[in-house]
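@channel anyone free to eyeball this complex?
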Amino acid sequence: MASNNKLPPIPGTTPFDGEQAKKGYALNKMCFSFNTADNRAEFLKDEEAYMRKYGLTEPQAAAIRAKNVLQLIAAGGNAYYLAKFAGIFGLDMQDIGAQQTGMTKEQFKAKLVAAGQ
Amino acid sequence: MAQLIGCIGTSHIPAIGGAIHKGIQQDPYWKPFFDGFPPIRQWLGEKKPDVIVIFYNDHGLNFFLDKMPTFAVGAAPQYVNSDEGWGIPSLEPLKGEVDLSWQIINTLIDKEFDIVSCQEMLVDHACSLPLKLLYPEGNYPVNVVPICINTVQFPLPKASRVYAMGKAVGEAIAAWDSSKTVAIIGSGGLSHQLDGERAGFINKEFDLQFLESLLTNPEWATQFSIHELVEKSGTQGVELLNWLAMRAALTAGTGCGVRKVHSNYHIPISNTATGLLALEKTD
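replying in thread with the prediction:
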């Protein structure tokens, strides 16, 4: 039986729980495959065919096409696996952070520096 | 019996591997991070541990969501790093200390921690980078036992459970019939969050409290639920569980005195507040 004790939400945060893990399984499995260079190359050669091979849902496929991290999380993506997808395109964690927070990369980096002051 | 000498907690951001590869440790961005390590390397050079037990979390190299152990203990003669998919260079393999692995496995099961044992196990940057940071010349003079804690898929083990597991590992080491000396690494953190609209979240006040607690009140963080730890330290800041297990291991034995060898705290490296702390066991 699932727990009925809902925890208070943490704004801007989606804990990767059983619900997310179930929803995101195909997406995360595809991203896990990107540990291998051959798989990264195969994805880049034909993204649609590669997504079909892993059985991505339509929202997952749409989020991959858009390279939209918030949509990928909503579709069940986990940060650690999504980072392997981002790496294919040379995106670093400040690119990812800027996209999710609606900032420029420079603004996002400034926010990080400010956290230390 | 084996002797436990102390512990080192350190961050393990993948970008550190890129910086080492490029040789830019003294660039202004990286210098405040890398400058924390020489005093700890000097201490290790004096203490010369034979074995390092490392608490870390896998980021999707060895473990996928198909099989996700809460606690997994390595029992392999060698641990290989491999392509992690985000463009950081792979680091050299680590040599295992199989006898201690089984001492820990047997002790943990006896103490009712139903862990997974792994005779083959890839180790990711969370395991390989701390060794490279502590022994930058490579050809590591230590064997390792990696212990992986699930910080990826909720439910994560409670902080209190992680603490108890870490203490049991310390007891296993103290009872190991060996003349070898052992150090512990806790890998990860400190506060950071990669995902969601709260990406870039860092909590300096909490981190500094946590670091202080490891010196004076090691059980402090066990008062918090995982949900509270995520709220206070970020979705990936919860990697502090690895530090908690590390510190708990030092409480095994007749006393639990420690002295601080060195510490460092710097914001930011990548999206992370970096922490570094070495403690020597004094009893």
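from a first look: The domain at 18-88 of chain A is CATH 1.10.700.10 (Protocatechuate 4,5-dioxygenase; Chain A).
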